[in-house]
Amino acid sequence: MRLPLVVAAAAALIFPFVEADTVDHRYKKDEHVELWVNKVGPYANPQEAYEYYALPFCAPDTKHHPDAPGGGGRFNEWKVLSIGEHLGGHALRHSGHDITFLNDGDPEKCTTKALSQEEADHFSKAVQHRWFYQMYLDDLPVWGMVGEMLPKADQLKSKEKDDLARLDHMEDLSDSEIKDLHPYVYTKRNLVISYNKDQIVKVDLESDTSSLQEVKPGAQLEFALHVQYVETNEEFHSRFDRYLDHEFFKHPIHWFSLFNAFMMVLFLMGLVALILLRTLKKDYARYGIIHDLEEGDDMDEKEALQDKVEDSGWKQVHGDVFRSPTMLPLFSALVGTGWQLVVLTLGVIVFAVLGPLHGEVHEGRGEVMQAIIVCYAFSSIVSGYTSGNYFKSYAGTVQRKGKETSVQWQQTMALTVVLLPTVTVAVFTVLNGVALTYGTINSIPFLVMIKLFFLWTLVSIPLCVVGTLLGRHAHKGTTSDFPCRVNAIPRPIPEDVPWYGKPSGLIPLAGLLSFGSIFIELYYILTSLWNYKFYHVYGFLLGVYAILTIVVGMTSIIVVYFCLNAENYLWQWTAFGSGASTAGYVFLYGVYYYIFKTHMHGLLQMTFYFGYMTLIALNLGLLCGTLGHWAASKFVKAIFQNVKVD
What we know:
Elements: H1 2-14, H2 21-24, E1 35-42, E2 50-51, H3 83-87, E3 93-94, E4 108-111, H4 117-128, E5 131-137, E6 140-145, E7 147-150, H5 175-179, E8 182-185, E9 188-196, E10 199-207, E11 213-214, E12 222-231, H6 246-249, H7 252-295, H8 299-306, H9 328-353, H10 355-358, H11 367-378, H12 380-395, H13 402-438, H14 446-472, H15 503-516, H16 519-530, H17 538-565, H18 571-580, H19 582-596, H20 603-640
Parallel strand pairs: 9-12
Antiparallel strand pairs: 1-2, 1-3, 1-5, 4-12, 5-6, 7-8, 8-11, 9-10
């Protein structure tokens, strides 16, 4: 009875109430169509976004004006947003415009008071640094430039298209050029709304270059918005296609990168097959001879065969290979958290791929973030189960007192619950402090923090605890799942081994191969995050995710085999590190992308960029490390099941 209540409470925390017109997107003649203003900010810095009325725009002279009779206007009223929208940096407020369906009407105007020196400086800064603004009408985004620097009038574009390509002309001006230019603001905007029957299918925003007014103290700016309705035959279901850059995302290079990654998979699978089928076959034959020598009585035969075999290699560590890894509670928590991220990532990608069934995720503000939060909360049972199961498997391989084991159980459960949330909260605390200092809209509201805290404590923590208990009791009896017993005294690990027998020489190479299979897709993802593009090729992403899983597994198996052959039985951390090392290359690529592929600048944007890249690299490292450990674990169990052990 309690589970439905928990699900209902979680839904109430995450999903807001929505207005009727945003559900079916159908309007009757003269029905109000709300225009929401979202943000303003420099194009080069996506995270440096401020509320629209941070600039001294005036309130439209409509019934929504604050000074209108009755005082019931909606000017600057907050739109109810979901948690995903808040975390995505949206801050929608009512524009104050009174727009009705199929009514062009007269332009809605307003005039600012005489600009003070501070207000003029705000406008001047916005124009000089190429600020743009964003609005939403019927959940369709439109963009426009705040102004232009004149007298370079020959570089102006008379019409601003809302497909983002209109922003390509914005480049930083040198100091010598700025001295001869003056800031001018667009004061007249034309909103062209295309409709098909009772639905809006396209919105275009045009800025009139003849309305450019110079910004200076004491000037009064008269702003006007003219709405025009145009009938069209375009279908409603495809209205968002114009925002998707198909030429960029479905470029032949994108297809080639997927094919290239697939060929890498075939190469690695062939290499692993060579190791498993040929090398291991020879190993088994050699170890069989050794076993026969140890059991035989004929001394002459022993001496004759002794020269043919070498008493070394991975079989020699059979008594230690299933020894508990160091810091078992921490390692169990890492593996549990990694499996949660594996399930979460797969769930979100599949949810996005199934967009045609429930609504494309790129059409909804914050919908991907919403899916991540929901999947994280309900996949906590996976992290609890896998961490508890892993600890149970290895807890019996070492001698501990009952009280010590109980304490480590508690440590495992606590680390699984708080490990990833603690790091994430620490990063977002820094980012939130920077955002509040600069006054941007990317700070997380206090109410959203409370909702996330309750979602974590009421859903995530209980599911994680339940999962840990289930994983702890998944093993019936005391029978071990390992094919070999663990010796009481650890075997010394040889130190004089070649570089390809040391984890320090193999782990970086494994991470490089894994990174090579995803770096092209990583470029498209980073471009979507930081260059105002809507990522929509989730089929590509699912394919790359599958390829990454195979590549990480194959490379980890190869690394573990070489280490075991060097009689290094500490394979668990090695396997995890082989996969997790991919994160280091991802972060380094993020540094390269920041320097050479963007025009970002300033402490605010740099902090947000590298804060997000840290979280991306950290989560990817946990995910890949877990996949690498899982593949290596299957490999180790398989090879030791087929050796003759006394």
